[in-house]
User: What shape does this take?
Amino acid sequence: MNALDYFVLLGAMLGIGAYGMWRTRASGDLNTYLRSGGHTHWLTIGLSVMATQASAITFLSTPGQGFESGLGFVQNYFGAPLALIVISAVFLPIYRRLNVYTAYEFLGKRFDQKTRLLGAALFLVQRGLGAGITIYAPAIVLSTVFGWRLDLTIVCSGSLVIAYTVSGGSPAVNLTQKYQIGVIFIGMIAAFFVLLAKLPAGLRFSDALALAGGFHKLEAVDFSLNPDKRYTIWTGVFGGMFLALSYFGTDQSQVQRYLSGASLRESRLGLMFNAVFKIPMQFFVLLLGVLVFVFYQFERPPVYFNQAAWQQQAARGSGEKLRSLEAEFNAAHAEKQKHLQEWLAARHAGNPAAAESARAAALAALTRADAARAATKATLNASAPTITANDSDYVFITFILSYLPHGLIGLLVAVFFAATFSSKAAELNALGSTTTIDLYRHVIRREATDAHYVTASKWFTALWGFVAIGFALFANLAENLIQATNIVGSVFYGVVLGLFLVAFFFRRIGGTAVFWAAIAAQTLVFALYFTLHISYLWYNVIGCAACVFLSFVIQTVSPANHATTRE
Amino acid sequence: MTPSDPPPSSDESTGLPGLRTWRGVYAAVIVIFATWIGLLAWLTARFS
Assistant: This one.
């Protein structure tokens, strides 16, 4: 990165943060601070909901997933449109009618206070952990690539988000998210067109797709019923729907966004905006990763994309083995390039037999190159266990730094920070709101002025920000980062969704039954998580189903436990 | 509040041209969703 890149990066990030603070400096009463006074337009809600979900992990890791595994990850989002329709039709009108600040307030009104506290506590635990990952994930990648100090990257980026979120509350979050998602769209679209321009001369877009398809990177929909497969249409539609229903419908970081709507119509349209554009957006980001894969079939990639880690270990005891594997990888890559040129010539000459033969030879060379990559990862992991074996989070950033012009590099790094800030701010806003409304105002200090609760909310927001920074400073995450986030979510979300589904749809079940059912279901999910090896998306279904089923059982065997439906 | 109560504003205007009811909006979203699945399934079959 040069001075121009730093100018673009700092200008965009500090400018948006400062503008957000200045514009929302008069966020006076509690309704304004927590719900933007109920004045938000549907497009702002739509972009805000999208920005809350799309963290930096989305834009760092997802292209890496596309590069490694192709388009299959898009199935993870198949449940989102259906879930958003259910939320718009059922959840949202009730939230608005009850005039709640948080989703867990609704549980208190429908059941009882212990169930409300349980819902709030489950949210605070899982979102508190998630907030740490949100800030750690981009920091570890960017600090490794740029040689920045990890702790300073975490503290500086975290402090800026804390500053404007604490200062302006929900209005500042909504406003800054609108501009941050603008930066994200501009940066990703610019990267897409630069990538297309960088593809070899003579390689048309249709050739690129054919090449990616020939290497199994365009398998977007998998109808397999194998439960061990992580992404299929079934895990996506069913597991993904439960995950989306829980995330968009009961996670305060999202609920807070659409409760700020000026009317039911504005909130609904904001949700439908996401129902329509969520899948295309994820597809686009994954396709970008697939095109980076195609690009690297003609340009030699590093054998291991986390170059800093590779060079560090190459200078030590395992250096000889790593260099030997690199030579093996380079030879396989050169052979693959030769066969791909033959494939391209045969394809353009209309000779399918020769094209198929060249493709098969290229695929064999790719398999050898992948084997050398896998051996490199194993060697690195054996010599330094702290190095994650998965370098896919470094694929896109390596491409950006190696092939994008200055200025655009700064813009793309700004994309990662904009995405971090937008999701982080919504999380802190929600954590602060839930702590204030469901714990402080409800349990500790019931009668106080509006100004007192605004001040308390600011303190709690800042406190959660520092907790997230502390967690990020001590985190040591393995596996692909976006999956780590989703796994944490899936372990808790199912049970929380079960609480809300019972609340919305099963009138005869009371608070005590659902409370103990939720405790038992969460225990079951923990036990299964540590004993089974199934797609993590299924834990959403299992947790939810267990909570609903056990609620019925407990309600039935405890006739004295009457339903406590309250206005 | 009882969960069986109908949402009070379910008949609120959508303000969208050609889609006057929320049921119509949801149906349109489902059609768009099904179209996306169809296109992705076609992409999978076409380039596999």
Confidence is low (pLDDT under 50) at residues 1-11 of chain B. Helices of chain B lie at 22-46. The longest helix of chain B spans residues 22-46. Residues 21-48 of chain B form one domain.
